[in-house]
Specification:
Length: 302
């Protein structure tokens, strides 16, 4: 049947198998929700202020704490300080962390409303996702050890360094170290044959905005990048501010389009200050599929 559909409507066999499977699962979920929530008369939930207070308190508290584990981080101490807490051990989008939550959430949602198993399944999801978070902290510890040993092996004298996982996974990690005049940046996958970061030198070029580091937009960009930034002159003559924390798409290139987070800045002659003209995060438009294939290839190791 699936083969007939694929030959009649076009598309690959695997694509139609995925579509039919997802549709079947979705219909099953809808049926279960209908049986347990729409076809029966639900009992009124009676609870007190303490329970509602606890719900909103833990919801509001845990979300910014989770943000602290990402590279973005969060201003945990605002409005008293704009310092962003970031432990850099998990990607801002990690599907595995979400899937482990769903392991508990989906059975809970499909269970009868008054079933005691719902609480159990919720705690299972929270427990599994928390264990994964601990696992990423252990990965961070191992990657930092590889980073420092790689820097020592190449006799690189650095002022500071950072490591963080690449997008959508916790296997491929980016490492960036700053020296007086340049950065060294590279990647390391747990599937690499050698426990070593392969670095490429990237000039800082901070002199290109000398005397303008206190300009409003530049100051914000420097704060946003946690002072990990480089400047380059684009082919169109404008300057580009690169956030070095997120690395590059391809390890062997420092082309202007190869930086994951980049911001075009221009000088306003009326005020003689640099202003943010445009910013972009992620792969160049139209190259998303290619970049994702390269990411997957690099995750598998070299």
């Amino acid at each position: 049947l699936v083969t007939f559909i694929a030959s009649s409507l076009g598309g690959s066999l695997s694509m139609w198998i995925s579509i039919i499977l997802c549709t079947a699962i979705g219909l099953y979920f809808m049926y279960r929700l209908k049986v347990h929530y729409l076809d029966i008369e639900l009992m009124e939930v009676s609870t007190d202020y303490r329970v509602w207070y606890s719900l909103f308190f833990w919801t509001i508290l845990t979300h910014p704490i989770l943000d602290c584990f990402t590279v973005y981080g969060t201003q945990l101490f605002a409005p008293f300080s704009d310092y962003r807490v970031s432990f850099n051990n998990i990607s801002v989008a990690d599907p595995l962390y979400t899937i482990l939550f769903l392991v508990g959430l989906i059975p809970s949602a499909l269970s009868p409303r008054n079933s005691k198993s719902r609480v159990m399944w919720n705690w299972i999801g929270i427990g599994l996702s928390s264990l994964y978070m601990i696992f990423t902290l252990y990965n961070k510890y191992k990657v930092d050890d590889v980073m420092t040993s790689s820097l020592a092996a190449e006799n690189i004298v650095y002022d500071k360094y950072m490591t963080n996982p690449s997008i959508l996974n916790n296997v491929l990690w980016s490492g960036t170290a700053e020296t007086d005049s340049f950065y060294v940046q590279g990647y390391y996958s747990f599937f690499d044959k050698e426990k070593k970061f392969k670095f490429k030198k990237i000039l800082k070029n901070h002199h290109m905005i000398e005397g303008h580091t206190e300009d409003h937009d530049i100051e914000i960009l420097r704060w946003f990048s946690k002072q990990y930034y480089s400047i380059l002159k684009r082919e169109d003559g404008r300057l580009q501010f690169n956030d070095m924390r997120y690395g590059r798409f391809r390890e062997d290139s420092d082309d202007e389009e190869n930086f994951i987070f980049k911001f075009v800045i221009v000088n306003d002659p009326a005020t003689d200050t640099y202003i943010l003209k445009e910013g972009e995060g992620g792969p160049p438009r139209g190259n998303e599929d290619e970049m994702m294939r390269q990411l997957w290839t690099r995750i598998k190791g070299i």
